[in-house]
Amino acid sequence: MAIPKAVQLNHVADNAAAVNIVLTPEELTRLDEAFPAPKGKVPLDIV
């Protein structure tokens, strides 16, 4: 996936390293609670 404004090599490397992040089950639960899945179809915002 392309990330806009990631043009400097260190930014690209940081973004690529993000795939190696491992979240604990507790962290995943907290994220699910903070950002629950929608109950139906929701249109995406266009910026």
Question: Can you tell me about this structure?
Answer:
- The chain is mainly α and 47 residues long.
- It has helices at 9-17, 25-34.
- It is flat and about 40 Å long.
The SSE string, one letter per element, is HH
Number of helices: 2
Poorly predicted regions are: none
| Biggest pleated sheet | none
Fraction of residues in H or I helices: 40-55%
End-to-end distance: 18 Å
Number of strands: 0
Helix and strand composition category: mainly alpha
Task: Give the overall silhouette.
Answer: flat
Q: Radius of gyration, rounded?
A: 15 Å
Q: What integer is the average pLDDT? A: 89
Sequence-ordered SSE layout with sheet pairings:
Layout: H1 9-17, H2 25-34
Observed structural traits:
40% helix, flat, mainly alpha, 47 residues
